């Protein structure tokens, strides 16, 4: 009996330690992701999307390869079906999210594309309502609806107060990017593959695809600051950002960690505003609704996780 009682605090300690580690990894991901739109905006001003994306995937592949080499974890044998599922999750989550996001950045105001791309937490909330048994589905549903109303206001709050001021492709790709990231965040904690093994093949595929894209567009290798910024986007927001986020989700799912993740649109929007990006009052109201609903979803899911 005493031995059993002694085991309980140990389990609680390990759980607490895992929670702290998850929050640290999630905070690291948010810090890196918050710089993504700002740095991407500066590079897209003078370079095509294909070139920026090639540098990103090259930098990310180097990071994932370095992590793989330093890892002492041995890969458990997997079936062909499980390997294909892991590849699909990594490809959709990494390649799908980032390529679509940067097409959106190049096709519409970056600050608006960034807000739309970070509606993926609302999509995760909608999936939880549909697929799971949330503690308070009405609260999650209301938060998601308010968030999507905010997205509509962002879209309608264009430069001339009319709908779809940006390229229609931009709105569709921003929405598609959010879908890809929502899918990844739901799936990554449900598969056994480690983050580096999950992401490295997808990054290498991304390198190959974006290189062919560059060849089609005409390739001019950037130098100096632009080269460093492009590789930073790959090594930082894409490489370490995805790795940290994947580790956080594997440690604690999407409960308390989700609250930290929803700080990303707040921090990234603030940085873009400080850099000179401006929105109309309608779009600002929409942004407040999007960010507020994301935080509400995160708090609700965190409370549900704690209750369980």
From TrEMBL:
UniProt protein name: Drug/metabolite transporter (DMT)-like permease
Subcellular location(s) of the protein: Cell membrane
Spans through the membrane: 12-33, 53-70, 82-103, 115-131, 138-156, 168-186, 198-215, 227-245, 257-275, 281-299
Taxonomy of the source species: Bacteria, Pseudomonadati, Pseudomonadota, Alphaproteobacteria, Hyphomicrobiales
Domain EamA intervals: 22-155, 169-297
UniProt keyword annotations, A-Z: Cell membrane, Membrane, Transmembrane, Transmembrane helix
Top-rank taxon: Bacteria
Main location: membrane
